[in-house]
Amino acid sequence: MSQAEVYAKAGFGAAAPRGKRPAVIVVDFTYGFTDTAYPTAANMTAEIAATRRLTDLARERGFPVIYTTIAYQPWEAETLPWLRKATGMKALMAGTRLVEIDRATGITADDPVIVKHGASAFHGTNLAALLTAAGADTVIVTGATTSGCVRATVVDAVQSGFIVLVPRDCCADRAAAPHEANLYDIAQKYGDVTSADDVANWLGQIGPSDRLRPRNDGEVDQ
Amino acid sequence: MSQAEVYAKAGFGAAAPRGKRPAVIVVDFTYGFTDTAYPTAANMTAEIAATRRLTDLARERGFPVIYTTIAYQPWEAETLPWLRKATGMKALMAGTRLVEIDRATGITADDPVIVKHGASAFHGTNLAALLTAAGADTVIVTGATTSGCVRATVVDAVQSGFIVLVPRDCCADRAAAPHEANLYDIAQKYGDVTSADDVANWLGQIGPSDRLRPRNDGEVDQ
Amino acid sequence: MSQAEVYAKAGFGAAAPRGKRPAVIVVDFTYGFTDTAYPTAANMTAEIAATRRLTDLARERGFPVIYTTIAYQPWEAETLPWLRKATGMKALMAGTRLVEIDRATGITADDPVIVKHGASAFHGTNLAALLTAAGADTVIVTGATTSGCVRATVVDAVQSGFIVLVPRDCCADRAAAPHEANLYDIAQKYGDVTSADDVANWLGQIGPSDRLRPRNDGEVDQ
Amino acid sequence: MSQAEVYAKAGFGAAAPRGKRPAVIVVDFTYGFTDTAYPTAANMTAEIAATRRLTDLARERGFPVIYTTIAYQPWEAETLPWLRKATGMKALMAGTRLVEIDRATGITADDPVIVKHGASAFHGTNLAALLTAAGADTVIVTGATTSGCVRATVVDAVQSGFIVLVPRDCCADRAAAPHEANLYDIAQKYGDVTSADDVANWLGQIGPSDRLRPRNDGEVDQ
């Protein structure tokens, strides 16, 4: 059997139905990954622009847009075993420019920023709680890198109970082969791999009555 | 049967053996809790001083000292359901004085600070991973408030696989009855409730060969 | 100031708005806690009956009813530090009658049972993911014991992003003082403490269009 | 720059120092994955044999050997979004032969079995707590499939504070390309990819004084 036949027999690759209350997660579009002056970075200009189109639209439609950054404290950087493998990540120290969200993303002052400590935006953070509190049922995962933090975030998102969409042109990586290999795994097992066009179209169709409106002023939902 | 007899029959209240690699967790000794100018605070002068004695000693002996603070971003504060019950906590906004660790604790620039989002220092943070990475087997929980964040941190610590010690004179609260009721629950079910004297004595006895020395420079442990 | 004034000033004790998609969590109504032949148990007949009224109604209205049990494997029982404090819990071995849900609860074959390992129904389980996947926004916590597993479950529920309701007559404990002390803490800080009557009335008012209907057959929600 | 140069510049692919207290995790060597009568399975005979050599040795040296299985309850299978993508996994129902550990692994009655609900052995389980309670500092991850549950378990292990070793001949997959692509990502970013020979040699060198000996009878460590 071909690989495609083996995977089909095993039941992988089905398209997942979408929810009605999406949130956009923008993974690690920080200067440490986007500014090629730094050794851990790559050129992500196109992926940032494609993501910005979705985040601008999501914000306009009332859906949460959440950014992530890796930002270490000194003792943490000395202690975490991940940094013995991904040694370049030790440069991502709190307070440095490397951990700031790239302004080209169009981030606004009201957007939450999750400080993460490993590959996944969920591990060791309160992202799942925030999404649940906001009533989200679907997450759109974008950012960098596809084969690292995006993959790990996607796996945790679906394990945390969310439907996952990954617009491939919104995901950046340092090299093509790992980018494609991980999109393949994601499409087969964890989330629907689609495009910014398709997600933008879908965001435009979800009506105001479907929006989640998290507020701590007495009303939970509309 | 008396309550004491009922609890003894059910097997509660046993003293737990201590480990050899402790870490001290100082919960929420931030100005929002310690400076009585703020409505969420109480006078915690004595408990801060008792805690400082332990943290100074732990640092000297090479054991980690980890502080926590609650610090919210605006969207987070609007979204989390905890803040619909504990409404006073909404004032603990990132960037304000309320979320700074009280200097009276003797915190140093090298001590890590965990930003937490609810009652427990473990929930939605990477504290368990950090303690595991550092090789800790026992946590000494101090701070404020006994009936809120200390209790929640203690329960999560033992659930996360750590032995728990709680020096009662290092734990502060707004009122005596909840303080005592929660120390009772802790002593019966989750950790040994003891004193700063006893913990200081124990920290002094653990020899250098038992110390954990987390380093990302090639060696894991001594 | 009185304790009531101190708590009011600090912003505690507010009633939380309810969601529209509740789930009922029934904590540890297993024979090890409900059959007084066992040393860890107490008479919980009235609390089981009050809970059953809510679970029967919730099931009829299409809302999830989730039971929990503590059930250990031998190596786990030898390893977990919680069992050095709560030594009586070591008897709760997988495969024994002590870990079975009491039939008096009216549990049905379709109801999920979460195997938990500590006090909280969330810690080390996939309960948060299941509730999120089901679209729940509010959890009704019942069961045993108020001062142990119910308290820990309530704290984790609100930290996980859910609104929490606790009907006091559905929560059982071994002794009155810890029961009341913990309901006080819960009411002040984590969830609304109410009655089975009030919850039943509310469940009856939430219309079919508000129900969550989790299904893996192509539709996410109604 | 070549991909190798890009990765080297970014600081990936370093060998991680090993700890002294390992545990072996055997991921999903259950009949649903190992018996080719089932559509989700593949021939894993060689990888099971290579793993058994390590688990036999680890057990003999006093190190924990922990198995995992995916086993669903009906409501869970209907609710989890992962099963909308990995639809074949819905067959892994509790009580069926598919979820039993393959006897060819040499599993013993004393070995713990973790019931997992998604790809990672850590997500929604108490595995991290168990490993921490046992004093483990290093995990050896084996099992199936490399591109799915092994990868997810590796990422969570390092994020949870453990050093990770992956003997490549102990990891099985349905197809060669995803197997290799994921071992590449693991070796670059999360854990050392090595062989059963190398791990066996290392396990043989760690002396009895380094063993962890978790016991709930009064002593924590040797």
Separate helix tally of chain A? 9
Mean pLDDT of chain A: 93
Number of domains of chain A: 1
Decide which structural class fits the backbone of chain A: alpha/beta
* Percentage of residues assigned to helices of chain A: 25-40%
- Name the CATH superfamily classification of chain A: Isochorismatase-like
CATH architecture of chain A: 3-Layer(aba) Sandwich
**Low-pLDDT sequence parts of chain A:** 217-222
Shape of chain A: globular
Oligomer: homotetramer
Distance between the termini of chain A: 51 Å
Largest sheet of chain A: 7 strands, parallel
CATH fold call of chain A:
Rossmann fold
The succession of helices and strands of chain A, N to C, reads HEHHEHHEHEHEEHEH
SS elements, strand count of chain A: 7
Please compute the radius of gyration of chain A using only Cα atoms.
17 Å
Percent of residues in β-strands of chain A: 5-15%
Q: Which CATH class of chain A is shown? A: Alpha Beta
The interface involving the most residues is between:
A-D, 56 and 56 residues
